[in-house]
Design brief:
This protein has 2 domains: about 30 residues, no CATH class; about 190 residues, Four Helix Bundle (Hemerythrin (Met), subunit A), CATH 1.20.120.1760. It starts with a helix and ends with a helix. Strands 1-2 form a two-stranded antiparallel ribbon. It has a two-stranded antiparallel sheet with strand order 3-4. The protein is mainly alpha-helical.
Length: about 300
């Protein structure tokens, strides 16, 4: 009830010439009642609602609320990343590595689901970026550190921090470059691929009980290289031009089946080889392009 409506309902001495009776409520009773559950719930929803300004058909509109479906995938990826951190702290390194790969799959789905259902939003993009920082920035670095880098001393945690800082810088640069770069390429190693490389190394070497000094130095190099490649200007193929809705030759499906079979035989080793090849593809193609330009 508005203040004007309440004023009209209250008897006024100016119009009736009568004094306020004892049944008339004082001024403090004019305030809206918030004791009921409905009023509290409505107030909470109103105060916590997300209002986003967007441009549709050339007109600026204010949209209230968020899209549930893509943000559910983002939340699931965030949960997987957090689980990887907890598992790494508890010494369950295989579970931590698998959780990072699960987060990677879910992170790839949220954007595609948003585009397919036309539910893209600025809120979803920012939420996805923050979730990526946990799943592909903090989680791989902490898992690698708690597994083997902590045995190297100060150098171990410095390299782990280098990876985290580079992941944050990579995500920040990606956010500001959206729409201004060729979608066919990523500038710098994508953070999910960097996290997958680190997680695959932890998964593979931990299953082999690799505690030798050589493995410690190898993980030091892998984590540092993954961090530096994320903030480099080396281009990586994005696979965004691949449209799953278009028909493909039968041999493509056969290759996918063969890849699943090979991964299922020894998942940790095959995933390590797969992502190591992708990480190496950027510098190799950069060298080839430079050599070709010189010739």
């Amino acid at each position: 009830m508005t203040q004007d409506a309440r004023d009209q309902e209250q008897p006024s001495s100016d119009h009736s010439g009568e004094k306020l009776t004892s049944n008339t409520q004082p001024d403090t009773a004019d305030k809206p009642e918030v004791g009921g559950n409905e009023d509290l719930a409505a107030a909470f929803l109103r105060e916590t609602e997300v209002v986003e300004e967007t441009v549709e058909d050339g007109k600026k509109i204010r949209r209230r609320g968020i899209y549930l479906l893509p943000n559910l995938f983002t939340t699931s990826a965030l949960f997987a990343g957090f689980f990887a951190v907890v598992a790494g702290i508890n010494g369950e390194f295989t579970s931590a590595a698998v959780a990072i790969f699960i987060a990677m799959v879910l992170d790839g789905l949220d954007g595609r689901v948003a585009r397919m259902t036309n539910t893209q939003s600025a809120f979803g993009a920012e939420y996805d970026s923050l979730a990526d920082m946990i799943s592909f920035g903090m989680a791989p670095a902490l898992v690698a550190f708690t597994w083997i880098l902590q045995d190297i001393g100060k150098t171990g945690w410095v390299v782990a921090f280098l990876y985290v800082a580079c992941a944050a810088l990579r995500l920040a640069r990606f956010n500001v470059q959206i729409g201004s770069v060729d979608k066919k390429w990523f500038i710098g190693l994508p953070s999910p691929s960097a996290a997958a490389l680190v997680a695959a190394c932890v998964w593979t070497f931990h299953s082999f009980d690799a505690d030798a000094v050589g493995f410690k130095l190898l993980m030091l190099v892998v984590v540092a290289a993954a961090g530096v490649l994320m903030v480099s200007n080396i281009r990586y193929y994005s696979f965004k031009e691949f449209d799953v809705r278009k028909p493909v030759p039968f041999v493509v499906l056969l290759a996918v089946v063969l890849a699943f079979v090979m991964i299922s035989v020894e998942p940790s080793v095959m995933l390590l080889l797969l992502f190591a090849a992708y990480v190496a593809s950027g510098p190799v193609m950069a060298i080839m392009r430079k050599a070709k330009s010189k010739s």
